[in-house]
Amino acid sequence: xxxxxxxxxxxxxxxxxxxxxxxxxxxxxxxxxxxxxxxxxxxxxxxxxxxxxxxxxxxxxxxxxxxxxxxxxxxxxxxxxxxxxxxxxxxxxxxxxxxxxxxxxxxxxxxxxxxxxxxxxxxxxxxxxxxxxxxxxxxxxxxxxxxxxxxxxxxxxxxxxxxxxxxxxxxxxxxxxxxxxxxxxxxxxxxxxxxxxxxxxxxxxxxxxxxxxxxxxxxxxxxxxxxxxxxxxxxxxxxxxxxxxxxxxxxxxxxxxxxxxxxxxxxxxxxxxxxxxxxx
Length: 280
Prior knowledge:
The protein is mainly α. The protein is built from 13 helices and no strands.
């Protein structure tokens, strides 16, 4: 699966009239969060977790509610990626409680998106998918930019793929893609193309899946987003394996392996080594 977009990566700055000491600590927290986001995008979840947790500790120490919320949102998404649903739930609910108690409304969009993502990932019934869709629709009320709306449309499309509503999924993702293309949001375009690849793969349309995975790879290469490049390469290789093109499958699995080894993704490197050995 594609690396989850880090919705809480936008860090909010406090008033410039704060004390020098407070600004110094705030900068430390936000720098730590930024490193965590970088590690997360590389697929180095254990490293990212260390940075996010340190940022949260420092934010708690100086009672910085904004950065507490930001750290908790990033931790929730990270735990979802690790399938630790209980801890992910605790993190996003804690972020919401802080925002509610402190009357901080500028996180409403990302918190609602976080809830949508949570229910999307744990979904085991149609009711869970409907709950995810409800949160995504609610987040649109707090979307102030077209780019934020595009994030929502993309995620609704993902839910529709999971529900098997492929025509609806295409319409939502395409709606998102058009915004990202007009605004030149490369990371958003990469996610759109990847999800279209997933859609075509579910439909057993291997040429359509390959086309979109390659388009996702093009955007991720431009961004130098190593974690997403890894996912693109793995999916391209898997499609070639499915259609019986062993030579290309091995080529792209090998490229994925080099990516994993050189970005420190030990778990993926081990899995890819095993896959390559099986194909030889």
